[in-house]
Structures are given as structure tokens and as C-alpha cells.
Amino acid sequence: MSPLGRRPPRGGSLALGWLVLLGGPTAAWGQIDYRNLDDDRPTLLEDAYPIERHAFEFLAPWRYGKDRHGGSVHAFIPELEYGLLPNLQLGLKLPIAGAVDEATPDAGRDWGISGLRLFTLYNFNTESRVLPAFALRADATFPVGSLAGEGTRFTLKGIATRSWGRSRVHLNGAYTFGDDQPLAAAEAAHKWWYGVAADRTLFRQSMLLVAEVYALRSLSAEPVQVNASLGLRRQFTPYTVVDLGVGRRLREDAGPDYEVTIGISRAFAIAGLIGVGR
Predict the structure, then answer these.
(1) Is the pLDDT reported for residue 12 higher than 90?
(2) Domains of the chain with CATH codes
């Protein structure tokens, strides 16, 4: 990432990052974590940078979406991220959803686990004068729970980030391998999608503003959606970030009437890991 990005340079600044995570007086990584664009936090696209080595981050977003046919989904999506190696991040998601089927809206809302997702993200290069930052992410989605759909799916995503001062542009594209079987109610592994996002940092307010547009096909037989989202991330404490996002379809025949995301994340470390890999 650029010098204004969410991550400090690797190596000598690692000790500063640990002081921040453990409550030390120095402010570095934790105080600029609001620049981190995680997937769906608060918009679909993410940036090309993983979490710092041996750092943890716990994310707790809530999302509500409604379609034009009367179906709707509440989703609480707890997520844990861990920096296993330099430039390598691991993660786990376990969505809990409450869904109203658009075909039977009077039947009430069904609640249950909406699958189990394991993922890894590797950053191949930090941003240079010539090249953007680039990362590859791989997700495995398992049919765990009553609202998880059917079948195991594997998704590959390419991510690029380019900075111009306080502004950045992100390109994401993803493709899922697997049969066209019913998808999970929340955090579904869509067949393919691609999009572009732009963000702007407001340093005095410790805030990031982001806008995106993306195209998505959930299954091979489903129509292509074109959706847009707006979001913001705000530093609440040196280790805590809150976010808010809204989204809506741009085509009349496909996509959500609206989506709302509200989330909070907390960076932390385990003292027993201090010194590992220094």
C-alpha cells in the first residue's frame, strides 16, 4: 500500500504495530485501520493488503437486504482474520441468517447457519511507481447449516489497488468453481462477479469514504445484476473501527431493492506470539 495506506512498511515497523495492538503508547497500524477495505465491509470490494503478521482482527457486521419480490435476509456474519506469515492472511466466516423466501413470504422468517467459509489472501507485491498492489484470494465455502444451500464451492479472486495521494482505486474479479446448486441465504459464493471501487481518506476525521459498482451473476441460469454501493469507515478507538454501507440495484430485472450493512471490527494480538518471526 502507499505510505498513506492502512499498513506500515514491513520489517522495522513491526514492533510499533505490536505496541499499538497491545495498548502501548505508540500509534501506527491500529490508528489507520479504517483504511482497510475488507470484503463486504462496508462494500463488496476489498483492497489488496492482508492483516499484519501475527495480528488478529475480529469483525462483526450485520446486513439486511430486500428484493423486489418480497424476499429479505437478515445476516450476522462474525469473521476472524489472522496474519500467519508476511503478506499472508487466513480467515474464517460463520454467517447466521434469517431469511424470508420470496416465493412464500407469508411463511415467516427461517433462521439458521448459512454455511462455513475459510479463506486465504496473499499479497504478491506492494504498490510501486509502476505497478499497483496485487493479491490473490481463495475461498472454500461448505454447506454447514440449514440455510447453507447445497454443495462445496471454491472461489478465486484477483485484487488490485492503486493509490493517488489520499485517493485509491480497487479492481476485484472473482470466479467460483462448482455445480449450479442452491446457494446459501447469506454470504453466497456467486458464480462470478467483477467491479471497481474508489475511496477517499479524510485524515482529520479518521474516516474513509468509498463508492463502488459491480456486475454479478449468482448462478449460470440467473440474470446478471449490476449494483452500486456507498460506504464509510470511521476510527472509533485506536483499535476499533465502525462502518456503514448502503447498496441498490442499477437494473430493473435483477439485484436487491436495497441492502444495508453496519459493522464493527477490533484489532488485537496474543501476547504469547510476541517475538515469533521477528
Answers:
(1) no
(2) 14-273 (2.40.160.40)
